[in-house]
Amino acid sequence: MIKSLLHTRPLGLHVASRSYQYQSTRIGRRFINASALTITKSNDKATMPPKETLEFGKTFAPHMLTISYSDNKWSNPEIKPLENASIPLASSCLNYGMTCFEGMKAYRTLNDESSSSSSSSSSSSSALRLFRPDLNMQRLSNSMERISLPGHDFSHDELIQCISKLITLDQEFVPYGEGYSLYLRPNVIAINENLGLAIPDSILLYVMTSPVGPYYASGFKPIRLLCETNYARACRGGTGDSKVGGNYAGAMKPSRLAAEKGYSQVLWLWDGEITEVGAMNVFFVFENKEKGKKEIVTPPLSRGDILPGVTRRSIIELANGWEDYDVVERNLTMEEVASAVKAGTLVEAFGAGTAAVVTPIECINYNGEDLEIPATGEVTQRAWDELMDIQYGKIEHPWSYKIDESI
Questions:
Q1: Do 151 and 17 share a structural domain?
Q2: 193 and 233: one domain?
Q3: What is the pTM of this model?
Q4: ω before 59 within 30° of 0 (cis)?
Q5: Arithmetic mean of pLDDT, 21-43
């Protein structure tokens, strides 16, 4: 498949040995320039293992995208064989955690109802798609700006074009079927060689990809949570609203402790207020008898301690069009949730994020008591179904970005 694509050269593509270069039509390199992209194909004949054996983030496609920034300009983008990077030991990414990243997915369009099909004909003939990549680019830019990385005003569309070429080159690593995708990890690291605590002047942006199946081995099944009160994921005024590396390191220990007690994830609290679940945003659905409607409630972004998830935003925008539901972004305490569980007015709860998409919640342990929650509820199921339909191209939708598969 890849070879046949490379044999057809679009206008402006020049071949030199095994390297392919898009000629630049711009003057200067203040911004990322997709037309200057070079592609060097790997000699590795790697093939994707059976999709049923995939573990999240453990298998990698054979190519990567790299773009460096120094001297106040971006270098030409380059797609090349996946390799390890050489990073100065004095760099700010290693010493001060100056790194941020994104999580995205590429999907194969599901052509029929047999979404679990693994036939080569289904997989080779289906179009490739991204889900709202513009939002990921904006969040990456915001994260870079939050930790003072240069180049944060890059052109979002140009980077999306480069990422699309990377996906096309490694399209044989995009598994077919609902729940399967190619996970994309754009990462930006400060590589300045200086132990001084100062704003870095050089960075490396790279994108690696990984074919994945369902995030949880159990699939679309409810999970059990343990409220975390001794540790905090983020605080107001911190970096909780940015996707920076340091947010995740501190979550490892409490997550391990929760797992040792038999819980899937932690529910992060800040002074009794609910923030996130694990590395996901969280939603609660209440029965509001006075209004005669159900309320879909999620914590607000205004405090600055919650990540503005792409899946979170998408669910809010979808649910705003549903009848008999009100969508509310407001502060929510665990005491309110516990009282609603005991009163029978909390009808369901779920987490939402790129990796797992939507995850039902069936139990929250709070103050040593397991609070059982009905799962899987109709809102949870509807959010899952509508997102799947859009992400896998079952319906045409402006959020579904069809990749131009020319090389």
A1: yes
A2: no
A3: 0.90
A4: no
A5: 73
